[in-house]
Design goal:
This protein is an alpha/beta fold. The chain is built from 13 helices and 14 strands. The radius of gyration is 21 Å and the shape is globular.
Length: about 425
């Protein structure tokens, strides 16, 4: 393998995830009062609790915030006690991200610390709270440290708390949160990340996407056990394949058991491998329930193009619309093709991947990042295209930012305007 290929692999690992470069999140077990309010407005007691306290759902206890009654006390999952919220003077309330992960916990006795890069044999659930600063820029999870130093402000999104939940409690709280969203359909957005992403990075990126897209409902993330390492590509390939059943389980729970009326999905890079086979197995259950996903966004799929063509026919049958974003400037996918013996990836062109029932949109003419791989969550034209689709489900020829490309392929594909 020559030096050029090695260089491509290194930069591929460095930025291909499209996730934040910071490694943030709780480093020690948070105090017992983090993540809730007692009914009296005071911090929760730090007295020892019984192993399995009685937990009852309290529907619509506070609009927009799910709550439970535990040991006779009302607990709100609003991310931060009111007195601490006021003390920090945050202008934007913490953003809720519901998660499912088959990562092993960092400490099984303290699940609030977070999750590792190791695999676990179970799918764990919970809700994380992410601080979105007033200085947040559209499409960003935080600027470079030099920029922060010059501006004198910290615009990074950070995890404030991680709240583990049992499966049944997760479903009940998710339902209550959706019912509290106000008028309009109950909507959910699920994000599935790619290679070289930690649990904390996945949650932060999900919060940024959900916040910037103004999701009318809840935002969720399925985080598979990526190594979160430059050298972890081979391990991540094996792990994402072994995580397909967990991806299916989480998608099924949100789509069929949460009460959501419309569920949109964004899968990035290697995360598309888990999604592709998960939805193939989930399709019969979706059909029996008479339900479809809303929008499915396939962002820069790091999937063998022939495998994609064999399996992607399932997407039109289980979604209102499926959009494939591709780029000729995606150096990460170009490097991936080299690693895989020259076989093209579905998210890279040429050649263009165009299939019936899937709208292919190229993004090569917009301002890309260095590797051109994380555009789905950072570039305004792409985010606005997803925003429009999630609200209107317009066909490509009706979307103001798209224009048809001359092509001999059928169906034709589209180009997104800067």
């Amino acid at each position: 393998m020559n030096k050029r290929i090695v260089w491509l692999l290194v930069i591929f690992g460095a930025l291909s995830s499209g996730c934040p470069s910071i490694r943030s999140g709780p480093s020690e077990p948070p105090p017992d009062d983090v993540g809730g309010l007692a009914g009296t407005g005071t911090a929760l007691s730090k007295a020892p609790k019984p192993p399995r306290p009685r937990v009852d759902l309290v529907p619509n206890a506070r609009p927009g915030y799910p709550a439970v009654r535990q040991d006779g006390r009302l607990i709100f999952f609003d991310c931060r006690p009111a007195q601490r919220f006021e003390r920090f003077n945050y202008e934007i309330p913490p953003y809720q991200v519901w998660y499912g992960t088959n990562r092993a916990p960092l400490d099984k006795d303290h699940l609030k610390i977070g999750f590792s890069e190791e695999r676990d044999g179970v799918l764990r659930y919970g809700m994380a709270c992410v601080h979105v600063p007033k200085s947040h820029s559209f499409g960003s999870v935080g600027s470079w440290w030099v920029t922060r130093l010059v501006k004198g402000t910290d615009d990074r999104l950070t995890i404030e708390s991680i709240n583990p939940l049992e499966r049944d409690q997760f479903i009940r709280l998710l339902k209550d949160s959706l019912e509290s969203t106000g008028e309009g359909p109950r909507k959910a957005l699920i994000y599935i990340h790619g290679y070289n992403v930690t649990f904390e990075e996945a949650v932060i990126r999900a919060a940024q996407i959900g916040y910037d897209l103004k999701v009318e409902g809840i935002t969720a993330v399925y985080s598979w056990p990526s190594k979160g390492s430059l050298l972890g590509y081979a391990a991540d390939e094996a792990t994402v394949e072994s995580s397909e059943q967990f991806a299916k389980e989480f998608l099924e729970l949100v789509a069929l058991q949460s009460g959501a009326e419309e569920v949109d999905v964004i899968a990035h890079s290697m995360g598309n491998r888990a999604l592709l086979r998960a939805v193939s197995e989930l399709a019969p259950a979706m059909k029996r329930a008479g339900k479809k996903f809303g929008q499915i966004f396939l962002a820069a799929p790091d999937v063998d193009v022939d495998t994609f063509k064999q399996l992607a026919h399932v997407y039109p049958s289980i979604s209102r619309r499926t959009t494939l974003y591709v780029s000729s400037g995606d150096l990460a996918l170009k490097a991936s093709a080299v690693v895989h013996g020259g076989y093209s990836r579905a998210g890279f062109y040429p050649p263009i991947t165009s299939l019936p029932g899937i709208d292919t949109v190229q993004v090569s003419n917009v301002d890309l990042t260095v590797l051109g791989h994380g555009y789905f969550s950072t570039l305004e034209p792409v985010l606005h295209d997803m925003f429009d689709l999630m609200r209107s489900n317009l066909a490509p020829h009706d979307r103001i930012r798209l224009r048809p490309r001359p092509s001999e392929t059928s169906p034709r594909y589209w180009e997104i305007a800067p």
